[in-house]
Design brief:
metal ion binding; Sulfite Oxidase, Chain A, domain 2; TAT_signal; alpha+beta; binds the ligand Nc1nc2c(c(=O)[nH]1)N[C@H]1C(S)=C(S)[C@@H](COP(=O)(O)O)O[C@H]1N2; MsrP; single chain; 318 residues; 13 strands; eight-stranded mixed sheet
Length: 318
């Protein structure tokens, strides 16, 4: 992400238009099927844990009122235009290099300043009621997508471990395993990938622990089996393949801050008025669209989140 990528053409822009439109029609069908599953689940009140155990299983979920109605980015772009340096630095690398990654079994430790530190199995987390949240995503590089994520609020998990009053921040850590993540054999970043949120950001209802997209468990290249999504912040805050969540008193660092602290700050709120040192953040290219569109403050989620930052200088706290 530090490097050369600005001029790159998204695959959807070079795809033959007819193929592209057919693909969209197919995705529309898949989304409708997802809605049917959600309704069926509600009506029958069923829960079948077996459905969640294997990779790319169908998930049961309810729709969320937080979802945008904007046109969803085709599944093929969501899974072939990725940033995931553990599996290569090119957008198309993760689809290929993460192909054989086994995201199960998987455990996540939640620890630090909590009353009941606990290690959760991914199957246990999948029993938390799931919602489909169609969010706008904005990468710091200047492209954006609309993705139908499936997950649960991070607050649901943090409430289970009972956060101590002393905790002020949450620190997230990705898997460190160079045998399974070939990109970690290269020193392009410091490993493991780490990220952080202020506690009130972490507890905000929009902040989501994601386990799936487009109706199924997460594809490996999108962060299986568990990743964070914070829709009002630049995409790199959405740490993938999380193995540890720690409640702490002091502001944690993040991988991109370690790599270039003048370019990537702790907050990383989407902000069209604060340019990246090497490019403007005023506009973005929605993957699949030709013309750029203006970037919205807090990625369009200002009504819900602006109050978290009242009184803060967002140029200083970028
Ligand atoms: N562990 C890990 N998480 C990561 C990254 C990464 O390289 N490693 N890249 C980040 C960046 S820069 C972005 S834009 C999003 C991309 O998520 P997506 O590929 O599902 O769209 O993942 C974020 N999470
Ligand atoms: Mo990004």
């Amino acid at each position: 992400m530090l490097i050369k990528k600005q001029g790159e053409i998204p695959s959807s822009e070079i795809t033959d238009k007819k193929v592209y439109l057919n693909r969209r029609a197919f995705i529309g069908g898949a989304a409708a099927a997802g809605a049917a599953i959600a309704v069926g689940f509600k009506a029958a009140g069923l829960f079948d844990p077996a459905l969640h155990a294997s990779a790319n299983a169908k998930l049961q979920f309810k729709p969320s009122s937080f979802s945008t109605n904007e046109k969803q980015t085709p599944l093929n772009d969501v899974t072939h235009y990725n940033n995931y340096y553990e599996f290569g630095t090119d957008k198309t690398d993760p689809a290929d290099e993460a192909k054989n990654f086994k995201p199960t079994p998987w455990k996540v430790k939640v620890e630090g300043l909590v009353k009941k530190a606990q290690t959760f199995d991914i199957d246990t987390l999948l029993k938390i009621p799931l919602e489909e949240r169609v969010y706008r995503m904005r990468c710091v590089e200047g492209w954006s997508m609309v993705i139908p994520w499936i997950g649960f609020p991070l607050s649901a998990l943090l409430n289970q471990v009972e956060v101590q009053p002393k905790a002020k921040f949450v620190e997230f850590t990705s898997l460190l395993d160079p045998n399974r993540m070939p990109g970690q054999r290269r020193a392009v970043l410091e490993w493991p990938y780490v990220e952080g949120l202020r506690l009130d950001e972490a507890m905000h209802p929009l902040t989501t622990m994601v386990v799936g997209l487009y109706g199924e468990t997460l594809p490996n290249q999108d962060g299986a089996p568990l990743r964070l999504v914070v829709p009002w912040k630049y995409g790199f805050k959405g740490i993938k393949a999380i193995v540890n969540i720690k409640l702490v008193e002091k502001q944690p660092t993040s991988t991109w801050t370690q790599a270039a602290s003048n370019e990537y700050g702790f907050y990383s709120n989407v902000n069209p008025n604060v340019d990246h040192p090497r490019w403007s953040q005023a506009k973005e290219r929605r993957i699949g669209e030709f013309f750029k569109r203006p970037t919205l403050m807090f990625n369009g989620y200002g009504d819900q989140v602006a109050s978290l930052y009242s009184g803060m200088d967002l140029k200083k706290n970028f």
